[in-house]
Design goal:
5 domains, single chain, elongated, 12% strand, alpha+beta, 53% helix, 5-stranded antiparallel β-sheet
């Protein structure tokens, strides 16, 4: 009878895990980030514009072409210098192994033929769809791991209560709003992989740290190797994962004090195996890290520090493995504590390479806030422009409101019952809650301890009032998870009526087309300058080098600020010099450019940023005249200067940039800080050219002017340039447009017209002269 009950419970647990995986998958499939290539055609495939996902796709494509291990530097980033890639390689290994079988079977051709181009497009689509779907699967695995962890941690309770705890923990993460952002179909970023590894770490630790399991050396050593392998994968995929591993080390350290009072023979083997396998597993990533030679003891990127760390940790357990001396066992935790205290003091105040590297890491983190503080992911959960209770509940569910009380209860339970296996979830809850409150990007990882605390704590409370049968326990746990995750359920139900292949964001397809157009223009090996959030799309979709990055200060201050310096420059000569220094051939500017204006000004002109804006007491904020004197303001109005007082365009047009593409689509929503009352195009592409050097004959001192009527995708404007006739009888102007052919997608309506005094003349500006900077003399 007992065996039949055990088999029935296992079947119920298996069914529950399948339901949780299905729930997590359906929600993330519904609340997706996909964009249809052809609206209304579900079979026409899809694409994504998530920046970090696009860079993972580029790295996977390079790994497939160049072989493993993945490249650690990228010539397309931070053009023309290139840059070290800030992500460690192990997530790319995973994506490459998963993607390779999904590629088309047709042999690849590099002959440039039509068939080769078709195959290449299909191959890149396969890479994109696969990479952007992997986190969707990982989130389902994470939900199941948390359900199984809650089942293990609830050992000693009734089967019904354990099933309820598993259902609530797994269901909570399945419906976690913070997870949707990083694991919905269409996102290929590494967040879901990191969180899954964290959940796996907790799952193994729930058994490894149980006192009855720590009595067995063999099993403990085996579980130590698993924990070490997971830790190596974690840190080798995202260096920030070191925080989670250090918390596991802290749990092992606290267990040493228990070991001092009552022997736990398996603990030394667990700790030693954990650290040695971690060191062995992280070694390939450290040896391939480009940061190892530049800054050997760097904290924020892989360096020798990340190999020495686990080796030092292993030394803590070597004496306990080598001898079973009771006096040593009792005194060892205190000796280790004193040694670690001295080490921390030395790192804090010492003048040696390791200490300087660690201190610089913390200093770097503080400096990084200058660049990243205004990004939505970096905003706090409870305060700031995006924070508040609605934001907190939307990302973490209603359960977060009672989680602190339940957490206190679990801490008390761990202390009262001496439950070592609860150490890691409790440590994670406190540390990750602080992280999530400071930056919402960490709310996804906080979902791991949150789900466990809710699963264990809430079922403990509910089961005192209601004692459902084993068959109904899972259902009750899921109902509680649905109640906590109602914001996500509501969103999913809303999105169900708007599938990805019917409607999507305003500018997704036009933006994708803009990036693709960049890849077909002249100068494909030269860089594109754009705002920070377009960089990875330029590199992957446009297959061009970029001066635009969302990696912030990872690539250096100039890599982040140079695009904004260009756009806010009011001196055209300085702006051209910056483009030349960075090797930029094209400039991409989008119609919603002004959405980032406040952020740019806070970084580049914090003291006088309000002089660029007209801020009324109520209503819409507009750019001031000072903004329209900048390159950004001029690029939004065909290269001239918009005069707010004259309500028109004034001055000469830019003579070193020409418009080569204007998006045929318009933004359906006005920019947050509008610069015009007319419909705004999704974006424009400008090209830097030497320009034809036109010389117009005339009387010295006379005013000369050149005009060219232009059009691009239904947009019409006039290029104007003027100069004074010099003493030698010629006025000299630089003209960036040709009249004998296409300027990209821009066409001249006819020849150029020159005016000197009362005389007018028509002449042709050849494309070859524009590209060569040749002189065109007009008598």
């Amino acid at each position: 009878m007992a065996r039949r009950m055990e088999r029935a419970t296992r079947r119920a647990l298996l069914a529950l895990c399948l339901c949780i995986a299905l729930l997590a998958g359906v929600v993330r499939e519904t609340c997706d980030l996909r964009h249809a290539r052809e609206p209304g055609n579900e079979s026409a495939s899809w694409f994504t514009l998530d920046p970090d996902s696009l860079y993972h796709m580029r790295r996977v494509e390079r790994a497939l072409d160049e072989g493993l291990p993945p490249a650690e530097t990228d010539p397309r980033m931070n053009a023309p210098h290139g840059a070290a890639i800030p992500w460690p390689p192990y997530y790319t290994w995973l994506l490459t192994f998963v993607t390779a079988p999904m590629l088309p079977d047709t042999p690849r051709h590099d002959d440039g033929s039509w068939a080769a181009q078709i195959f290449e497009a299909r191959r890149r689509e396969a890479i994109e769809r696969t990479v952007a779907s992997v986190p969707w699967v990982l989130a389902m695995v994470t939900s199941v791991l948390l359900a199984l962890s809650a089942w293990r941690l609830a050992k000693g309770r009734s089967d019904g209560e354990r099933l309820g705890a598993a259902a609530l923990a797994g269901g909570t993460y399945a419906l976690l709003g913070a997870s949707l952002q990083y694991s919905a179909i269409g996102n290929g970023d590494h967040h879901a992989w990191v969180v899954m590894l964290l959940a796996a770490l907790v799952f193994v630790a729930t058994s490894a740290l149980r006192e009855d399991e720590l009595l067995q050396r063999g099993k403990s050593a085996w579980r130590g190797t698993l924990l070490g392998a997971l830790s190596a994968l974690l840190v080798g995929s995202w260096v920030g994962g070191l925080v989670y591993v250090v918390l596991l080390e802290l749990a092992l350290g606290l267990a040493l004090f228990v070991h001092a009072r009552r022997a736990l023979p398996g603990l030394p083997a667990l700790g030693l195996g954990f650290h040695l396998v971690w060191a062995a597993g992280i070694t390939p990533a450290v040896l391939s890290s480009p940061w190892r030679e530049v800054e050997p003891w760097m904290l924020v990127n892989l360096s020798w520090l990340h190999l020495v760390h686990p080796l030092v940790g292993a030394l803590v357990f070597v004496p306990l493995v080598a001898t079973s001396s009771d006096p040593l066992r009792r005194r060892w935790p205190w000796r280790v504590s004193m040694a670690l205290t001295l080490l921390l003091v030395a790192i804090a105040f010492g003048d040696f390479a390791l200490a300087r590297g660690v201190r610089e890491g913390f200093a770097w983190a503080g400096r990084a806030n200058e660049f990243m503080a205004f990004i939505a992911e970096s905003q706090p959960l409870l305060w700031g422009p995006l924070g508040g209770l609605r934001s907190l509940v939307g990302l973490l569910g209603f359960g977060v409101c009672v989680a602190p009380l339940l957490f206190a209860g679990e801490v008390w339970r761990a202390w009262r019952e001496q439950r070592l296996e609860l150490l890691l979830p409790c440590l994670l809850f406190g540390a990750l809650l602080a992280q999530a409150l400071m930056q919402r990007r960490f709310a996804d990882a906080f979902g791991v301890p949150l789900a466990l605390v809710l699963g264990l704590g809430l079922t403990s409370v509910v089961w005192r009032v209601v004692k459902p049968t084993t068959g109904l326990a899972s259902a009750l746990g899921l109902v509680l998870a649905f109640a906590s995750g109602y914001p996500t359920l509501s969103l999913a139900l809303t999105r169900r009526d708007r599938p990805w292949f019917e409607t999507k964001g305003d500018a997704a397809r036009p933006l994708h087309a803009l990036y693709g157009r960049l890849g077909k223009l002249q100068g494909r090996d030269e860089a594109v300058l754009a705002s920070w959030d377009h960089g990875h799309a330029i590199e992957w979709i446009g297959q061009r080098p970029s001066i635009a990055t969302n990696f912030g200060s990872y690539l250096g201050r100039d890599s982040y600020l140079d695009p904004w310096r260009f756009f806010l420059e009011s001196d055209a000569t300085q702006a051209e010099a910056l483009l030349e220094a960075r090797g930029a051939r094209h400039v991409l500017i989008c119609g919603d450019f002004t959405k980032d204006l406040e952020v740019m000004l806070r970084l580049l002109a914090p003291d006088d940023r309000r002089s660029y804006l007209l801020i009324p007491r109520e209503g819409v904020v507009f750019p001031s005249q000072r903004f329209f004197d900048t390159l950004a303001g001029r690029l939004l109005v065909h290269g001239r200067t918009a005069s707010l007082s004259a309500r028109g365009l004034t001055g000469n047009s830019l003579d070193f940039l020409r418009l080569v593409h204007a998006s045929p689509e318009f933004l359906s929503a006005p920019p947050p800080i509008p610069h015009t009352s007319d419909p705004v195009r999704v974006g424009w592409i400008w090209e830097r050219v030497p320009g034809a050097r036109v010389e117009l004959a005339g009387e010295p001192g006379a005013r000369a002017q050149v005009s060219i009527e232009l059009s691009c995708n239904g947009e019409r404007w006039t290029w104007l340039g003027s100069a004074t006739v010099e003493a030698d009888g010629f006025a000299r102007l630089r003209v960036p447009y040709s009249t004998d052919g296409a300027n990209g997608d821009t066409l001249a309506a006819g020849p150029a017209r020159g005016f000197v005094g009362t005389r007018s003349v028509e002449f042709v500006v050849r494309e070859d002269d524009v590209l060569a900077g040749a002189t065109v003399r007009v008598p």
